[in-house]
């Protein structure tokens, strides 16, 4: 056993067969996360750590050796789980593992891989859907149809944030017995906060709504938002999301005018959808700036989406700038 899943989490999944399949899949993912966290913790003691793999993923990002390795670990684990289809950031197309199985899993095997060699938190993001009759239909649907959204963080703690649609829970890996144990049964994001997260180096490329909003944040107490705000940007979505879950705030990765950034940077299927599900279930909000992320149908497997999430007050405020 690698995770002590709470009764509340499983109770929300109505069919006993699906519930069993989800538990087995989470156990497989938790095993993978334990292995990945060991690799991350070894850092440069491991030869080739943080090195480029010499290839690109489907979205044109340079793959690092650890991106490829984590994808292999997760693929191998899911092959022994009740999973029919696997969609990964690191693979061009959907993989069919066993079309007779009940679930479909999408994943960003290693989020924040540009941070691998800097010893800050990185993670694994995943989303579980019921398998549909085809591989395509299993993923080309709205995020509101997810059974489970989750992410692991490999940081000072190795943790798992997860929802099945009845609140958001936090599990922490206890290294004494290598088991993820429930640490917070119900995460609640504060309605308001004085902290924003954005890659401000893209200021020149932002469209007016985001530019105006961030300018108003920077004006502090003297500006229209009438409060002094702090800025934080880790550059690993999982780490920024985890901070917001713990103490509120807003995260923005908007669309901008740079070539290739017309829909921002983050991918709908395996980054925005699971994080949006987790944030909403913790009482926060997740939009593309204006509209709810979980209502967006998927058009292409690696589709990008502008992403704004966090405490409800600032996320609603951003909408008014559009
Ligand atoms: P990945 O490493 O899976 O490609 O994801 C990195 C993402 C996300 O974690 C982070 O928020 C964002 O990219 C940072 O992008 P910039 O370097 O453009 O700021
Ligand atoms: Mn990512
Ligand atoms: Mn990644």
Give the SSE map.
Blueprint: H1 7-11, H2 16-42, E1 52-56, E2 62-64, H3 65-79, E3 83-88, E4 95-96, E5 103-111, E6 122-130, H4 135-139, E7 148-154, E8 158-163, E9 168-174, E10 179-184, E11 195-197, H5 208-219, E12 230-231, H6 237-247, E13 250-253, H7 268-281, E14 285-287, E15 307-310, H8 312-319
Parallel strand pairs: 3-5, 11-12, 11-13
Antiparallel strand pairs: 1-2, 3-4, 5-6, 6-7, 7-8, 8-9, 9-10, 13-15, 14-15
Bound molecules: 2,5-anhydro-1,6-di-O-phosphono-D-glucitol (AHG) and manganese (II) ion (2 copies).
Residues 108, 111, 237, 271 line the site of one manganese (II) ion.
Q: Structural class, please?
A: alpha+beta
* Oligomer state of the chains in this structure: single chain
The CATH homologous superfamily of the largest domain is called Fructose-1,6-Bisphosphatase, subunit A, domain 1
Overall helicity: 25-40%
Termini separation = 48 Å
Question: What is the mean pLDDT?
Answer: 96
Order of helices and strands: HHEEHEEEEHEEEEEHEHEHEEH
Poorly predicted regions are none
Count the helices. How many?
A: 8
CATH architecture of the largest domain: 2-Layer Sandwich
The number of strands is 15
Which descriptors apply to this entry?
globular; 322 residues; 8-stranded mixed beta sheet; D-Maltodextrin-Binding Protein, domain 2; Fructose-1,6-Bisphosphatase, Chain A, domain 1; 2 domains; binds 2,5-anhydro-1,6-di-O-phosphono-D-glucitol; 5-stranded mixed beta sheet; alpha+beta; single chain; binds manganese (II) ion; 8 helices
């Amino acid at each position: 056993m690698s995770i002590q899943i709470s009764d509340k989490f499983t109770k929300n999944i109505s069919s006993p067969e699906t519930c069993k399949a989800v538990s087995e899949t989470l156990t497989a993912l938790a095993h993978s996360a334990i292995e990945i966290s060991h690799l991350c913790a070894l850092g440069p003691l491991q030869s080739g750590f943080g090195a480029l793999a010499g290839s690109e993923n489907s979205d044109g990002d340079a793959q690092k050796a650890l991106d490829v390795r984590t994808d292999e670990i997760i693929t191998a684990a899911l092959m022994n789980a009740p999973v029919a289809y696997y969609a990964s950031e690191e693979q061009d197309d959907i993989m069919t593992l066993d079309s007779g199985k009940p679930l479909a899993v999408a994943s960003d095997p290693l989020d924040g891989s540009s941070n691998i060699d800097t010893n800050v938190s990185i993670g694994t993001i995943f989303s579980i859907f019921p398998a549909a009759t085809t591989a395509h239909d299993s993923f080309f649907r709205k995020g509101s149809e997810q059974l489970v959204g989750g992410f692991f963080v490999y940081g000072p703690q190795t943790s798992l944030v997860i929802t099945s649609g009845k609140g958001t829970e936090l599990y922490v890996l206890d290294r004494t017995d290598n088991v993820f144990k429930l640490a917070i049964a119900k995460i609640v994001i504060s309605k308001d906060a004085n902290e924003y997260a954005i890659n401000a180096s893209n200021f020149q490329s932002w469209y007016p709504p985001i530019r105006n909003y961030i300018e108003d944040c920077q004006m502090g107490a003297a500006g229209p938002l009438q409060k002094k705000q702090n800025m934080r940007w880790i550059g690993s979505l999982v780490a920024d999301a985890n901070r917001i879950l713990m103490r509120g705030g807003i995260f923005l990765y908007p669309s901008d005018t740079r070539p290739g950034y017309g829909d921002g940077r983050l991918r709908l299927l395996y980054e925005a959808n699971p994080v949006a599900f987790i944030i909403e279930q913790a009482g926060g909000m997740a939009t593309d700036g204006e509209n709810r992320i979980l209502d967006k149908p998927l058009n292409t497997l690696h589709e990008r989406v502008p992403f704004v999430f966090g405490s409800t007050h600032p996320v609603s405020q951003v909408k008014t700038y559009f």
